[in-house]
Automatic annotation (TrEMBL):
Coiled coil regions in record: none
Source organism of this protein record: Purpureocillium lilacinum (Paecilomyces lilacinus)
Listed GO MF terms: transmembrane transporter activity
Membrane topology: Multi-pass membrane protein
Name recorded for this polypeptide: GABA permease
Length: 453
């Protein structure tokens, strides 16, 4: 967050600004592709959760007559992908208001479901909620607790979404870190409160986990309210939260792909580094994101372990992309930040000691949980079987091999982050960034920026 307050608050600039000159291109390339991989999986996760909640609503509304199948769920998934892709292409002017409404809708959903459960459901006592520890994984209590962090980590990732829109913000150095802080605060407070509510109302976990809806939270609502109408409405309410999330995730992933194409980091980079005239969005990378998720969503129709490994990789990919700039900052020293303070007012600036402590804690957490072969790569239970094995390390290994091969073959063409002004937008009221020099090719609608040394 503090890095985002520097003079280069846009995609890929953090690692370029902080790293040594002889390694910054390589580090930027790997950070970029790790982040892209994470965000492409985020799109899949959001769309599939939306599809699962819609399927759960159909089961409840039909009194279990509707049968959930992978093919039907995939069809709903495609519908969500298509809708949100269309919004990203033709609804650029409403994206800001859409995302504002999405925030309020998510908070409203948490409040409504919490109130319904607290009023209607049977309750556990405070001892069960705050002191009881139930471990059925086969791991020790300590390892089991760390493995449980994966769900919490999943709910708090992707706060960097605002950085991928920094080039389209009036004051990114101020607003980007603030937005990330607010995202974590809102997500942390509402998530913690919601978990406490769930634990108080979780009186029959065996029945809830065996639900025909496929979504335990909907079974909880159904048991609490004894009303299929209420459970259906609340299931649709939650599905809309994930549709909103998918919409924002496509925005983020497409900007990352566009930035990487602009920096010549993907195949056919000249084709994908294009802003559609009149729409002011990178239509081609939006469609690329759509195509990727249509194809990889097919994993849901195959073995469960394959899809689970693919989905589980999202937290690790994004955590690694967060860790790399922080590690570089720790190695080179926090004084390097002072060289990259721009003329814009920073949205976040910590003292040297506090910043160092925060950086160290962040890196230790990420090294313990996310860097293979650490805890988030462990199977969730012992003894390990073919179906319970965590194959996320395989996903990470395949990704690493492919990206490394691409770098070895085509890495020379990658030039590192440049700055692009999307037509109609800038870093200020009609001004470019004061520390950047703009070179625009009007015929190709491309723009690059070089730093003044």
């Amino acid at each position: 967050m503090e890095i985002a307050s520097g003079k280069m608050p846009f995609f890929g600039a953090a690692i370029v600004s902080l790293a040594e000159t002889n390694t910054c291109r390589r580090q930027s390339f790997f950070v970029g592709w790790t982040s892209i991989a994470g965000w492409l999986v985020v799109v899949t996760v959001q769309a599939y959760f939306g599809a699962l909640f819609i399927s759960a609503a159909a089961v409840v509304a039909s009194s279990d007559a509707y049968q959930i199948t992978p093919a039907r769920t995939y069809g709903i998934y495609l519908a969500i992908l298509t809708l949100t892709t269309a919004v990203n292409i033709w609804g650029n002017r409403i994206l800001g208001k859409w995302n504002d409404c999405a925030l309020y809708w998510s908070v409203l959903g948490v409040l409504v479901i919490s109130i319904v459960l607290l009023v209607k459901a049977d309750k556990n006592d405070a001892e069960f909620v705050f002191t009881s520890f139930r471990n059925e994984t086969g791991w020790s209590d300590g390892v089991s607790w760390i493995l449980g962090l994966l769900q919490s980590a999943l709910s708090l990732i992707a706060f960097d979404v605002v950085l991928h829109m920094a080039e389209e913000m009036p004051d990114p150095a101020r607003d980007s870190p603030r937005a990330m802080i607010y995202a974590i605060l809102v997500g942390g407070v509402t998530g913690s409160a919601f978990i406490i509510v769930i634990l108080f109302c979780l009186t029959d976990p065996e029945t809830i986990l065996a639900t025909t809806t496929g979504m335990p939270i909907i079974e909880m609502v159904l048991q609490a309210t004894k009303s299929r109408s209420a459970a259906t409405i609340l299931s649709f309410m939650l599905s809309i939260c994930f549709v909103n999330g998918c919409n924002a995730s496509i925005t983020s992933a497409s900007r990352l792909l566009f930035a990487m194409a602009r920096d010549r980091g993907i195949v056919f980079h000249d084709y994908f580094s294009h802003i559609q005239h009149g729409l002011n969005v990178p239509v081609r990378t939006i469609v690329l994101c759509y195509g990727f998720n249509v194809c990889f969503g097919l994993l849901y129709l195959g073995p469960t372990v394959a899809f689970s490994a693919y989905v589980a990789s999202v937290t690790i990919f994004l955590d690694i992309s967060y860790a790399m700039p922080i590690v570089v900052l720790l190695i080179r020293g926090r004084d390097i930040l002072n060289e990259h303070r721009g003329s814009q007012k920073a949205g976040l600036k910590m003292s040297k000691k506090l910043g160092l402590a925060v950086n160290v804690v962040a890196v230790v957490y990420l090294l313990v949980t996310s860097v293979p072969p650490k805890f988030f790569c462990f199977p969730i239970a012992l003894p390990v079987t073919g179906s319970s094995m965590n194959y996320v390390s395989v996903v990470l290994g395949i990704f690493t091999v492919l990206v490394t091969l691409y770098w070895l073959v085509f890495g020379r063409s990658f030039r590192g982050p440049s700055f692009d002004i999307i037509p109609g937008l800038a870093t200020g009221e009609g001004e470019t960034h004061p520390d950047l020099h703009l070179n625009r090719d009007e015929t190709s609608e491309k723009a690059t920026v070089t730093r003044h040394e």
